[in-house]
Amino acid sequence: MSPGGRLSSGGRCGFALREAGSLDARVIAGLHLQCFADGLGGAVWSASSITRILSLPGSYAYLAAAAPESTASPENTELQPAGFLLARALADKSEILSLGVATAWRRHGAARVLLRAAMARAGEAGAARTLLEVAEDNVAARSLYSAEGFALVGRRPRFYRRPGGTAAAALVFARDLL
After folding, report:
1. Which of 85, 95, 98, 135 has its CA 20 to 30 A from that of 37?
2. CA-CA distance, 29 to 50, in Å (whole number)?
3. Domains of the chain by range and CATH?
C-alpha cells in the first residue's frame, strides 16, 4: 500500500485505515477488479476513472489495509491492501459510490471500518443522509448495511449484469446521519 494520508487502526483483525487520493487510483482499481470483475459483467473501474471520480467536488476515498498476522500499525510498512471505499458528499446528502473488500479479507470487519469512516466524514461535511446501492444477491453486504442502520428505499431491476446473461437488481439503501 502506498504511503501517505492519515492512518488509523480499526476492525477486529487490526485493519489500518487511511484516506486515499489520486495517487492510490491504481491500488483502488486493482481492488475493484478483484471485487467486481465477475459481478459487474466486466464493467470494473479503471485507475483513470477513479482519478476522475476523486477530482469531483466532495469526493473522497479510504483504503483499508491488513498487516501480516493482523498487527496493523502506523509503523508497519508491510500493509496489504484489503479494501476500499469511494464516496461523495454534496450539500445534505452523501453517496457510497463503491465499497469492496478483497476475498481474503471478507467477513473480518474491513467493510464496516470503511463504511463507518465514510459516514463520519459525510456527517462532518454536513450530510444528513447517506445513500448506497448493492446487488440484491449480495447477502453479506445487505446484512452489513442493515446492521449499520441502512433501510431499503428503492430497487432498480436487472441493474447488475452477470456472466451468462443474467442480471441482479440494485437495491437502494439509505441511512440518516443526524
Report:
1. 95
2. 7
3. 7-176 (3.40.630.30)
Residue 7 has pLDDT above 60, yes or no: no
What is the tens place of the pLDDT at every residue in 79-123? 789 999 999 999 999 999 999 999 888 988 999 999 999 999 999
20: closest CA among 92, 90, 97, 76?
97
Q: Report which of 169, 174, 86 is spatially closest to residue 130, judged by C-alpha positions.
A: 174
Element (H, E) at 142: helix 139-147
Is 129 in contact with 174 (CB distance < 8 Å)?
yes
The more confident residue out of 74 and 178 is 178
24: left (phi over 0), alpha (psi -120 to 50) or beta: alpha
What pairing do the DSSP bridges indicate for beta strands 129-135 and 93-101? Answer: parallel
pLDDT tens across 19-30, in order?
Answer: 999 999 999 999
- State how far the Cα of 84 lies from the Cα of 61, in Å rounded to an integer: 7
User: Are the C-beta atoms of residues 139 and 151 closer than 8 Å to each other?
Assistant: no
